[in-house]
Amino acid sequence: MAPGATTRARCHNRAPVASVSVPDVAFGGAPASAGAGARPQRPGPGWWAAPLTELPGVGPATARRAAAIGLATIADLAEHLPSRYLSYDAARPIADLADGEEATIRVVLESIAVVPTRRRRLRIVRARVRDDSGTITAVWFNQAYLAGILTPGDELMIRGQVSLRPQRQVTVKAHEVLGAGATAGVHTEGLVPVYRATEDLPARRLREMVDAARPLLRAAPEVLPAWMRARIGLPTRADALVALHFPRNPREPRAGRRRLAFEELLVLQLGLLAVRRHEEHARRARVLRATGALTRAVRDALPFTLTAEQERVLRQVSRDLARERPMRRLLQGEVGAGKTVVAALACAQAAEAGAQAAILVPTETLAEQHIRTLRDLLGPAGVEPVLITGSVPRAERERREMAVATGTAQVVVGTQALLVGGVRFHDLGLVVVDEQHRFGVEQRQALAEQAGSGADAAHLLYMTATPIPRTLALTAYGDLRVSAIRGRPPGRRDIATQWVREEQREDAYEAVRAELRRGRQAYVICPLVSANDAGTPARSAVDEARALAEGPFRDFRVGLAHGAQRADERRAAMAAFAAGETDLLVATTVVEVGIDVPNATVMVIEDADRFGLAQLHQLRGRVGRGEHPGTCLVFGEPAAEDGIRRLEALVQTMDGFRLADIDLDIRGEGSIMGLRQSGPTDLRFARLSRDRQLLARARHVAKAALARDPRLDAPEHVLLAAAVREAFPGMPRLLDA
Ligand code: ADP
Ligand code: MG
């Protein structure tokens, strides 16, 4: 699915403000801010969402520049958080300054002049400044205009480099004129915020704008009710914003960020829980009780016994199906973990309860694979699954659709087009969606609508092979109940993974040759198809295949498979390897899935630092599938710490969930496994790797809030409810409990 098809449910944390009025004290009591000139106009209703031009000193030109970085309103500016802080100390007396240090002084200007120099392009401004302890000369380079702006008597804050010999002077890095009554510097003193800025709109200008908005920040509308703030120990939103933009110590911004992160996570959890509540309570599903009529036959015909993990998950699913409350469950498990069997047994339970089941997969190719597997699994119970895809000839397709419409087809496999394309079901009781990580919450909602009719809902089981850390699951799939099949897939051998250094390459090749001589096979995986893919020095499959066939593996048969080959050529290469006609298959990640060669026992991965951790884990799963244990040899000289940590993790554990956790730590959630497409993981203030606990508490508090006030319509929750609606724009009736 195209990423563009996903609607993002962003948390803006921005409450509508019609019902909020700014307390007088916010203006009357606030000191005039430095350099801000006139006091702000008293904003009318909606001032929090008012355009930036409402701020004193901000005209249309500045507003346009701000809009270019996404800042349109006061609220936008308030939430444009500093990316870091310059740590300046407080102003010190001139008499205490030491030669060579950088310092801040607070002074009065006595005189100022442009000093000519011999170099034509260089103009120097020199000013004599004083405080109670003494005088010093302040020097600016190439800012001659200052001589026309600064006037004797001005009170200045100056940050600069001090030198006492041969003359006492300070070379100015930053300065500011203090307005009447101002007590502190904005640019030169203490923790000075640095904002993401542009050439047009430098951080200094942003600092001035935020300073001008300071009284508004102090009156920022409060979204969190007092009981929540008390329970978690959080400052008010206003205090958090002030702490972030005008911190007095390094702890303040941390506390402020935590507050905004909590609010963001809470709004997300409220929305997801409300979605779940709606699905579970507003709609009814058919009760699909297991009678054993078909499920027993399916089980009896299995060529293996289910693992304890499979049994556990199956019990959860079976119980869900037997309820009137529609199942909304996500089943996680690595590729090969045995999810399909669980799905097949769920379908059998639906069928024996007299309902139909549909299995949806992302592509027609996968649908064709699935239908074969399901025929094997369900056939012994006399259930004949039906495949409906675009490539089924029209007459045949109509015949099958008729079987679906009359209910003779009990289990149907197809792409999602099955639900959209007007195929009528007689009595659809269960929908299984494979590879669900491509969906966001809004897609799931749309699917749930399609899978039911009005108040009648189908049970939904989503399956994904991408292990997701619990924190991420809570944000991306917080509307679902989650099950996981953990551990090594059944019947798989151990895979010993080794990170091999370049010096040991020859030894490694010898180890591979030894395996090949024993009659086993090996893969060599390269990040690139051919060297001209990129100007980087990574190994390419085409070159590597040639080099290996002529060099270290000249006594063996070397095959080549990559994505730039014609499909039949590639298939032939894979088939030859599968048939044992080649010993060594050099390939790109085209072998990641869909090739199963039990005799292959070794995988060499070149430039492993170029692959993601999940992908490396997936790749090595290609070996150790037969009677012999597997070996994975990874090469790679990562330049960055991140790359080293990834490869070390790969060597240390075979647990895909553990690896996903580590990946989250290393990379942050933004880039993890393409989940970004699913919208709600796109967090502005929270970081899942760092805010695990905060997320758990947000989930908890969200549940408590919905239990107390299901529609969030108590006065203290009104702004929170509005924030939830704003974060889930596609679901306006979300909170209509
Ligand atoms: P998934 O759908 O999770 O990728 P599958 O259900 O397709 O995994 O199972 C992968 C392979 O493992 C299949 O060949 C399947 O028959 C086999 N398998 C599943 N469960 C077991 C088990 N309990 N014991 C042995 N083999 C199993
Ligand atoms: Mg599968």
**CATH classification class of the largest domain:** Alpha Beta
Amino-to-carboxy terminus distance: 31 Å
Mean pLDDT reading: 85
Instruction: Report the uncertain regions.
Output: 1-45, 671-681
Q: Roughly how much helix do the residues carry, as a percent range? A: 25-40%
Could you give me the name of the CATH homologous superfamily of the largest domain?
P-loop containing nucleotide triphosphate hydrolases
Cα radius of gyration in angstroms = 33 Å
In spatial order, strands of the major sheet run: 11-12-10-13-15-9-16
* Total of DSSP H or I helical runs spanning 4+ residues: 25
Tally of strands: 22
> Any idea of the CATH topology of the largest domain?
Rossmann fold
Q: Given the helix and strand composition, which structural class is it?
A: alpha/beta
> What ligands can be seen in this structure?
adenosine-5'-diphosphate, magnesium ion
Going by CATH, the architecture of the largest domain would be 3-Layer(aba) Sandwich
> Looking at the structure, what is the overall shape?
globular
Total discrete domains: 4
Let me know the largest β-sheet.
7 strands, parallel
| DSSP strand content | 15-25%
Topology, element by element:
Elements: H1 25-28, H2 60-68, H3 74-78, E1 84-87, E2 102-115, E3 124-131, E4 134-141, H4 146-149, E5 155-163, E6 169-177, E7 191-194, H5 203-212, H6 214-218, H7 226-232, H8 237-245, H9 251-282, E8 284-285, H10 295-301, H11 308-321, E9 328-333, H12 339-352, E10 356-361, H13 364-378, E11 386-388, H14 394-406, E12 411-415, H15 417-420, E13 428-434, H16 441-451, E14 456-457, E15 459-464, H17 470-476, E16 481-485, E17 495-500, H18 505-517, E18 521-525, H19 541-550, E19 558-561, H20 567-578, E20 584-587, E21 600-605, H21 613-620, E22 630-635, H22 641-652, H23 656-667, H24 692-708, H25 718-727
Parallel strand pairs: 4-6, 8-14, 9-15, 9-16, 10-12, 10-13, 11-12, 13-15, 17-22, 18-20, 18-21, 19-20, 21-22
Antiparallel strand pairs: 1-7, 2-3, 2-5, 3-4, 5-6
Helix pairs in contact: 8-9, 9-24, 9-25, 11-12, 12-13, 22-23
Bound molecules: adenosine-5'-diphosphate (ADP) and magnesium ion.
The site of adenosine-5'-diphosphate has 16 residues, from helix 12.
